[in-house]
Sequence to fold (273 residues):
Amino acid sequence: MRRRTDAARGPDRRHPPAGGARLTVKNPTIDAEELRGKYIVLDLLAEDTDGAQYNIEMQVRRYRAWSARSAYYLAKLVSAQLVAGDDYGGLKPAIGIHLLDFDLFQDPAHREQAIWCFEMRDAVTPTVTLGQELQLNLIELRKADRLQRTTGALAAWIALFEHWQEDYTMSQIANEPVRAALDKLRHLSADAETRRLAFVRERALRDERSLLKDAREEGREEGREEGREEGKAEALRQTAMNLMRSCGLDDTTIAAATGLSLTEIEGLRQELQ
Fold:
């Protein structure tokens, strides 16, 4: 993914260095506890040679408040750059690159587009941007693979994410960085510690699905015993409290799963203490 620079998107964009920006990963290790605690999200934080900050995420499940969560963490990449005494001129772009293993935009009008770039642009004159501080790039991997409209390196990376276990498909890929990534992936797959982490991740996914299902069922049972509207609200509260008791999901995740606000979630946590 690159910072958009073509003339159609405005004259103030810059082309990345030849071959793409060189990134330094700031969180290169993944702890097993992170695999258990995060809501189906694996993410990397990186910085390029110009100081631009990158949040690179892979997500396998669509859930409520997805856009709000993405905007929040991208904004945090900007705000975290300043400390007391710094001026705004030192801010570097914060660029999100989210690889989604689901279709985020399901409206019929959007079924033919799989790659998206969201920036701060004027609604009437989109060639005018308000700086380069925020940009969110999305790739709907399944849709992109289905549409087969990308070419070159990006098409090769999409094939890797969607078909890395298919020998014939991967044998057709000539892109060297993708071939190197595939070799590394296959090497890791044979490593005992990596297999253990994969098991931890798979178990966490299954546990979350089960816990969410159980909590919703319990909430619905509670709701049947109450009035229709009051019962619905109480069912959501009950679902949230069941999730708090059953697992270590954070407030943002529970809010996304139930539709309750963060303020409501925080209040429920206080009730349980």
